[in-house]
Design goal:
By secondary structure, the protein is of the alpha/beta class. The chain is built from ten helices and ten strands. The chain has two domains: 151 residues, Nucleotidyltransferase, domain 5; 167 residues, ATPase, nucleotide binding domain (Nucleotidyltransferase, domain 5). It is 42% helix and 18% strand. Helix 2 packs parallel to helix 3, helix 6 packs across helix 8 and helix 7 runs antiparallel to helix 8. The longest helix is centred in the last third of the chain and has 31 residues. It is globular, with a radius of gyration of 20 Å. The structure holds 5'-O-[(R)-(carboxyoxy)(hydroxy)phosphoryl]adenosine and zinc ion (ZN). 5'-O-[(R)-(carboxyoxy)(hydroxy)phosphoryl]adenosine (KG4) binds next to helix 5 and helix 6. 5'-O-[(R)-(carboxyoxy)(hydroxy)phosphoryl]adenosine binds next to helix 5 and helix 6.
């Protein structure tokens, strides 16, 4: 069975085809980063208009790459939320129209479930149960995944999402939007932990995070070192990254202890960060367990994760009608179990 997946929740249009026997057979992505960079962040109306232009050509592209006729698909999956309402509507409308015209089921997918399951596209894939750390532009979540589709939130950020903290810190260092990947490049030029920024909320015995204070600590350091700021930027980026990595390590260790699980799945845009990947890999090595990540290309938004999650929901018989419904806010814990 081959499913088409459409992602359009924010500033990336992603389309892919997943085959439950052969795996991923085609994927394509158009990123709007250059368009939004000029404004320093995503402009929702521009995002929606651009998705409208991109979806159909990308669908044509993946069908031809997979050498498939539309009728050979078993269903059409799309991101139904959370995300920007206009952007979500473009994908939902395209998916519902296509599914209706082809007389196929239309499968709404939760964007964060897409991220969470993306590491399952890799070989070897993680086995259930596991703890999932979801770190993206809008979410920071630690989740107990006892079985497919069952998501119990163990902790989350009480203020900024981690990706947001990366982007805001990058902005303080004069880097363009989205600054996360550029901040990573800058941090590679830094050495040691020059600034020793605070590690927020480590003493509390829960799995929640707070990143707003860390960002403010960077701001204070920037203001204090106005004279020699340029030469200190790599150190600032490095110290910020180390504070984040330490925090994630402690909170993941706590979640693993709480659940007794030995598998950690790390997903979402920020999981592309090399320091974070190596730190959590090391942690799981020490815990005699294993950490799993998506390939870097599938850490940030993409169609493959929506096609894959869509296939799981489709197989569980969870698909809707052709009503165009989107959910800009949609807690992951509201999803039905998959088995
Ligand atoms: O998952 P994603 O593509 O979109 C959301 O669902 O939010 O995540 C985007 C976020 C942005 O904040 C971006 O700066 C961050 O992920 N990001 C990174 C890296 N690559 C992307 N942050 C740190 N290091 C990276 N290498
Ligand atoms: Zn995302």
């Amino acid at each position: 069975m081959k499913i088409l997946g459409i992602e359009s929740s924010c500033d990336e249009t992603g389309v892919a085809i997943y085959d439950d026997e052969q795996g991923l057979i085609a994927h394509a992505l158009h990123t709007q980063i250059a368009m939004h960079a000029e404004y320093g962040g995503v402009v929702p109306e521009l995002a929606s208009r651009d998705h409208i232009k991109r979806i159909v050509p990308l669908v044509r592209h993946v069908l031809s790459e997979a050498k498939l006729a539309p009728k050979e698909l078993c269903a059409v999956a799309y991101t139904a939320g959370p995300g920007l309402i206009g952007a979500l509507l473009t994908g939902a409308m395209a998916a519902a129209s296509l599914a209706y015209a082809l007389d196929l089921p239309c499968v709404p997918v939760h964007h964060m479930e897409g991220h969470l399951l993306a590491p399952l596209l890799e070989t070897p894939a993680p086995q259930f149960p596991f703890v999932a750390l979801l770190i993206s532009g809008g979410h920071t979540l630690l989740i107990k995944v006892s079985k497919p589709g069952s998501y119990e939130i163990l902790g989350q950020s009480v203020d900024d999402a981690l990706g947001e903290a990366f982007d805001k810190t990058a902005k303080l260092l004069g880097l363009p939007y989205p600054g996360g990947p550029l901040l990573e490049q800058l941090s590679l030029k830094g050495k040691g932990d020059y600034f020793k920024f605070p590690r927020p909320m480590l003493k509390n015995q829960h799995c929640n995070f707070s990143f707003a204070g860390l960002k403010t600590a960077v701001l204070n350091a920037v203001l204090e070192h106005e004279q020699d700021l340029e030469s200190l930027k790599p150190q600032l980026a490095r110290s910020f990254t180390l504070a984040v990595a330490d925090t994630l390590e402690v909170k993941c260790r706590r979640a693993l202890k709480l659940t007794g699980y030995k598998t950690l799945v790390v997903a979402g845009g920020v999981s592309a960060n090399t320091e974070i990947r190596s730190r959590l890999t090391e942690l799981m090595h020490k815990q005699q367990g294993q950490a799993f990540f998506a390939r870097k290309e599938f850490c940030t938004d993409n169609g493959a994760m929506i096609a894959f999650a869509g296939m799981q929901r489709f197989k569980a018989g969870q698909f809707g009608d052709y009503k165009v419904k989107v959910f800009p806010r949609w807690p992951l814990s509201e999803l039905k179990a998959l088995s």
